[in-house]
Protein 1
Amino acid sequence: MGLGYSYEIVVPAGGVGKALAEVAVSAPAGRREPPVEVTLPGGEKIVLPFTSRFRSEPVDCSAGGPLELDTSLMVPVDDDEVCAYADAGGLDVDPLGRVAIGYVYLTVEFARSSSPGFASLDFMAAATGMSLLFERSASVREVFTGLTAGSGGVCCLLDKECVEYRVCWLNGEAVRETVPGPRFADMAEVAAEWRRPDAHRPPP
């Protein structure tokens, strides 16, 4: 089996719709597949330029999740890692100097079991090459921290198959912390940090 690294974005439970709207802005233009309509917990409906399990039928998550989406994200060709990945895959660069990275498999948990009051968006790389791109590319990291900031997220981290985590956004600030490491012994300590009542929250 190959590597399966992922970026996880943690948001307040009521912020999933805003987070998904931010992800939609990063989608490539001109997709051939019809968009998918998703009903979120609470009844909010959102139309997304992706598929769910490679189908475009409406998805009802009003009673909870998880929600699974097949996404592609536009990433600036701003570092050698993205440039090499694009060259190897024959990817076209758009007029804004970006390439589409996909599929990236997004799983939304509307109620994070280990952190009541929070939800998570987990973006799983489709293959080993993409996993290594996630690990090595600053441009990819900035796409995910940008999504976190734009959606009011409290944490963004790279999950290296539960062996090592790299926290790159925490409570409104870009950080570079490896878990386990000097600041955090495990993910429970990271979660305790974003759950602090006095922790900084970006404005809604």
Protein 2
Amino acid sequence: MKVTEAIVLELDRQGVAEAMANLEFAPAAMARAVVRAADGQAIHLFPNQR
């Protein structure tokens, strides 16, 4: 999980985390995608455009 922690810290450093919070972004969805990617599953960035 070191990679995930580094990503979260970098997003926070760049202000992305605050911008996402202002847009009411659901971090749980991102967390699920990270876990699936770590398990080797393909992650669709734009699920409606397959």
Protein 3
Amino acid sequence: MNYNLNVNIIKLWPGETNYKEHAEKTYNREWFMLYKNEVLGTNFTLNDILLYRSISPKVVMFIFKVAELCGVNDSVKYKCVELFDRFLNKYFLQKYYKVYKHYNKKWLKVLDSCQKQSCLYIMSCMQLVTKYSQQSTCLRKLKKIKNILNRCGHNYTIKSIICSEFNVFNTIDYKLNEPTIFLFVEYFIYFIDYENKTDLLSMCTMLTDFVYIHFNEIYDHLQYKKIGQRQYSYSEKMQFLFAEYGKISTAAAIIITATYFLDFNDEKIELITEYLSEECQMSPYDLRLISSATTNIIQIKMY
């Protein structure tokens, strides 16, 4: 079979000047389409995850503080938040079936133990993410990790640190390649037509911090805007969470919000919203609704 490729028949993306750039964009597009198709084809059940995130705003801010102490970048920081959240989901579901169903009087001990070990679990998530991301940080050395934990007010042995990392890795089924909200933010910025992408990325980073910290409040506000009530059933929450507030749509809404703060040009905002709407397979109205909910919570926090 002849594998020679006639480069003249390749159609470049708009604005491209070389085939290397074409190959990079094509790879990114194919990755995004595969992920989107996988998510759209997934049938979530009530046992898949717990509603909302399993972690509070204080925990998210603590993770951000640990990330700063460890000298990791924003991408690793967000990966750690989502990995810790996923770990807790899995951890509590496992403990529920092993302990609560059979020995429910011991449940409070399980909760107390998890709370006491939470800092160590967070550090384990940070270790795993930095290794996966191939970042060269102080987390490569166990003594450095022990020192950081000491600075956070916790004294753990080297053995405890090693065991915790293995426990977290095992609980999440050894899966470290889940994309974050911020990854989709970076993806959309890569493709959208915007003059100053450096400023846009900087604003989106600040907004992504805010969304991770105030996720629950934004979600509640969005739910109220969408259905006009603050009380809803468990199944209604589940359906709404995946249908309206997934990672892709959240990333798109962050970009729309950032564009609004940076540029009051209604025509430009409308064009970006229309593009993101097609990418997310969600109506422009729904994306604006998520953006509006985010903006409203920002205004509440400012006053």
Protein 4
Amino acid sequence: MSNTNNDSSDIKQAAERADSEKIAKNLKDEQKSATPETLSEDEQTSFIKEELRTDK
């Protein structure tokens, strides 16, 4: 059952509780994301096996 017309929807509640100053501060913060860890040779696998590829 859909509650799309419900005034107490999660989206509406989130919009009402949003703090525009906090959002603006978060957007201004230039935090560098952590660099990804290096994968071992066993972990560096492709999602598609090379012998199954048809685009080559």
